[in-house]
Amino acid sequence: MFIHRRPGWLLPASAVTPEALVTGRRKLLGGALGAAIGGIAGGVPSAQAQWRLFSGPPAKMATLAPLAAKSNGKYAPGRATTPEKAATTYNNYYEFGTDKDVLAPAQALPTEKWTIKLDGMVKTPRTIGYDDLLKQVSLEERIYRHRCVETWAMTVPWIGFPLADLVKLAEPLGSAKYVVFTTVADEKTMPGLHASFYPWPYTEGVTMEEAMNELAFLSVGMYGKTLPPQNGAPIRLTLPWKYGFKSAKSIVKISFTDKRPTTFWQALQDEEYGFWANVNPGVPHPRWSQARERLLGNDEMVATQIWNGYGEQVAAMYANMKGERLFV
Ligand code: MTE
Fold first, then answer.
1. Pocket residues for ligand 1 (CB within 6 Å)?
2. 37, 64, 87, 96: which could join 225 in a potential S-S bond, CB 3.0 to 4.6 Å?
3. Helix, strand, or coil here: 268?
4. CB-hemisphere CA count at 13 Å for 253?
5. Quick one: CA torsion of 144, 157, 89, 100, rounded to 10 degrees?
6. What is the CATH number of the domain that holds 76?
7. Region 320-324 average pLDDT
């Protein structure tokens, strides 16, 4: 099995780094560390410089279609919805760059004729078209809180359907224990893929029990429209009780397996980004506290809640787990 090992001096970038550190890192990239990365890549421009080359002028904005769905009021977020502009312009999508402003490059994401492969331990492996899938599920709107391990948070009206409905359609074998999500890796439009020290494609995983939990959601829209590319068009995971990096964007494959997967961030830095990654204000990330969070839109700082406030729905799943690093 390929195990990705980063050199010790190479910090993972901003999705997982406080902003002050990121700013410092950018300065460094212009200097000695930048030269070191260039050296690793054999004299080609540093990864950051390559992203800059790809970004170019803002692309034409992707067309978003109106999407109507009945609101499911069961999960009242207890705080104001984040302004759409804030949630759709401050993004983590490393395939398009390590900054938050991936809006322009992400517009190039080709989302037409999208398909999702369902494979591994299923009755019959197959590929399902996005449009075909939507005919087999009922869409609803859920307002969920989203908490990034970087300590920013947002509250978003997602439109989608329970992940459990997809699992049922996939017909997994009784022996399947985990669900693995693989996201799109399109070299033509995604400059980040040229940073070869990342273990592309971006993958994430949950247990079958987590996948069947009532909160686990596949989102295809937000704010009454189809998902914008920068937020993970056309289909992404939304797991509100876990840190945001678990919510994989632009999914192209869903696999069932009996082996726990090593996910993207785990492969980079397991000590900092574990498999479970459940939100807990009492368990700090090795490099910074998780006690409070900054709300996108007004920058208000508020206390973080264990399980991101969704303990009633999820805590029981972890009650008897021994020896697992359940948080961060
Ligand atoms: N999915 C992919 N494919 N690539 C990414 O870089 N970033 C993750 C997650 N899903 C990421 C991803 C992280 S770190 C977070 S916090 C959320 O997406 C951010 O989602 P948002 O940009 O819609 O707020």
1. 15, 91-95, 148, 183, 202, 231-232, 244-245, 247-250
2. 64
3. helix
4. 15
5. 20
6. 3.90.420.10
7. 94
The band of 14, judged by pLDDT with boundaries at 50, 70 and 90, is: very low
What does each C-alpha distance from 303 to 86, 120, 220, 322 come to in angstroms?
20, 40, 29, 27
Q: Which of 244, 246, 249 is nearest to 263 (CA)?
A: 246
Domain assignment of residue 126, given as a range: 19-318
Distance CA 13, CA 99 (A): 9
Helix (H) or strand (E) holding 311: helix 311-314
Query: Taking 80 as the threshold, does the pLDDT of residue 28 lie above it?
Result: no
Atom 4, ligand 1: residue with shortest CA distance: 93
In a domain, 2, yes or no: no
Residue 43 inside a domain? The answer is yes
43: left (phi over 0), alpha (psi -120 to 50) or beta: left
Q: Atom 23 of ligand 1 has which residue's CA nearest to it?
A: 231
Atom of ligand 1 nearest to the CA of 149: 16
Query: Does residue 286 have a cis bond before it (omega within 30 degrees)?
Result: no
> How many separate domains does the chain show?
1
290 and 265 Cβ atoms separated by less than 8 Å: no
Residue closest to 324 by CA, chosen among 273, 281, 274:
274
User: Distance, CA 23 to ligand 1 centroid (Å)?
Assistant: 20
Residue 325 inside a domain? The answer is no
User: Is the pTM here over 0.90, yes or no?
Assistant: no
The span from the CA of 211 to the CA of 82, in Å, is 26
CB within 8 Å of 49: residues ≥ 6 apart:
34
Query: pLDDT band at 58, cuts 50/70/90?
Result: low
Asked which of 26-30, 84-88, 244-248, 278-282 is least confident by mean pLDDT, the reply is 26-30
Query: Which pLDDT does position 60 carry in this prediction?
Result: 87
Alpha-carbon span 284 to 234, nearest angstrom? 33
Q: Which two tokens stand for residue 285?
A: 């990330």
Query: For the purposes of burial, counting CB atoms within 10 Å of the CB of 305, is it exposed (0-12), middle (13-18) or buried (19 or more)?
Result: middle
**Predicted local confidence at residue 19, as pLDDT:** 33
